[in-house]
Inverse folding.
């Protein structure tokens, strides 16, 4: 009987060892599969070199709005935006009320080379929200202008 018990114990250990090997092999296959599924970033997905500076310009303009800095905000407007905006509208826009705030979302580059950023303007402490967009365009080598009044 003792030999039979040893054989049973040996078989149980062998089955346990096989299960562990199969499990380890399965894990190895899964990890290799996920590594192969991730292809390296191609040149088509390379980061846009101008995105950050366009985003920074949008942020500076919205900060001027938030701090009611009329001069900085108006200087950042493109000529087209200034021509299509009355002085009264500019005055109203740069007077958002107490405790203004803004949110800026991930933008996208248009075919015209402009950048469009969805934004939310919180114009007063009463939680009034205005959903709109800001369009940033290149106006020189390293200069950006806001092409619309949100």
């Amino acid at each position: 009987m003792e030999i039979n018990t040893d054989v049973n114990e040996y078989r149980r250990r062998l089955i346990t060892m096989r299960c562990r090997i199969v499990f380890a092999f399965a894990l190895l296959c899964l990890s290799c599969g996920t590594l192969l599924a991730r292809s390296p970033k191609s040149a088509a997905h390379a980061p846009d070199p101008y995105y950050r500076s366009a985003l920074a310009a949008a942020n500076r303009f919205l900060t001027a709005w938030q701090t009611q800095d009329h001069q900085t905000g108006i200087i950042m407007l493109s000529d087209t935006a200034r021509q299509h905006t009355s002085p009264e509208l500019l005055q109203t826009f740069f007077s958002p009320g107490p405790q203004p705030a803004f949110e800026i979302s991930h933008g996208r580059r248009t075919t015209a080379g402009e950048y469009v950023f969805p934004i939310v303007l919180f114009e007063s402490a009463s939680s009034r929200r205005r959903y709109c967009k800001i369009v940033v365009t290149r106006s020189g080598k390293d200069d950006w202008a806001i092409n619309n009044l949100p």
Summary: DSSP finds five helices and five strands in the chain.
